[in-house]
Amino acid sequence: AWTDVFPWLQDLLVLLRQVVSHQDHNRMSLWNVSMVMAPNLFLSSHRGNKKSSLKQREEMEVAVSGANLLRLMISYQDILWTVPTFLLSQVRQMNQVSSQKKLSLNKTKRRLLGKWNNKNHQDQLCEGVIRVHAPRHSKVSMAIQLDELMTARDITTRFESNDSLVQHLYEVGGNICERRLRPDCILLDVYKVNPHCDWLVKPTPSM
């Protein structure tokens, strides 16, 4: 998630949208806010003291482009942090193919793997039951039966603590590397497309 890399960016866009919502009083329209803030986010270096008319025109074009980009980010911030479904499906398919290649083991490894699976067969969970890990909590792990309405927020609520850190549920492994789930994400849908993933509760990274 982009918010893992730039946790401040989402807060900034929320603040800028609030400023624009009061434009009748502060005269800061969406375009005005974008023009003022864009140079602080999209820096460009210019060399030389003398600026030709061509150079000034290029700088103006860059400024307008940056303002337009920020305007779109403010306007569509609700979907900015969401990976499109078709792209996520492609990533899962690529990882699935890669995993299948890695599982092309020789006979000796297959026999050892079979013995290990038989030994740990009792640890396997029932259909529709996941084990959520929360290494930072006193409840290190918890087996949870999924239903059609259970969301990621329902899980993180069970692991709430007294500190002020915001908890999120992550889908790890299987046919994905690591993905932070939205609070309103339906977990049964994730389970169906990635039944072999791990489920991890951890706080949001901070700068």
TrEMBL record:
GO terms for molecular function: GTPase activator activity. Residues 1-81 form the Rho-GAP domain. Gene3D superfamilies: Rho GTPase activation protein. PROSITE patterns: RHOGAP. GO terms for cellular component: cytoplasm. It holds the Pfam family Ubiquitin_RHG40_C. Keywords: GTPase activation. GO terms for biological process: negative regulation of stress fiber assembly; regulation of actin filament polymerization; regulation of small GTPase mediated signal transduction; signal transduction. The keyword Cell wall biogenesis/degradation does not apply. The keyword Cell inner membrane does not apply. It comes from the Eukaryota. InterPro entries: RHG40/28/18_ubiquitin, Rho_GTPase_activation_prot, RhoGAP_dom. SUPFAM superfamilies: GTPase activation domain, GAP. This is Rho-GAP domain-containing protein. It comes from Salarias fasciatus (Jewelled blenny).
